[in-house]
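This section describes the prediction task in plain terms. A model, or a person checking by hand, is given the sequence of a single protein chain and must write out its three-dimensional structure as a string of tokens. No templates, partner chains or ligands are provided. The sample shown here is typical of the held-out split.
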Amino acid sequence: MEKCKVMNQELNYYLAQKLAEALLAKSLISAKEFATITELNRANFKPFLVELLPEIRC
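The expected answer:
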């Protein structure tokens, strides 16, 4: 069961990030807002390898 929860967190993180990237690409959010959303996504979804993900800087 735990494996399924981890997989769901990974998928949810991936989908949330893709949505944020699409909003950024269409200039619907700023780079600073994207960085904030990324930080929140990492905190909320806790992707498995979060420590290895690059820091987003504006």
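For orientation: The helical segments are 2-25, 31-45.
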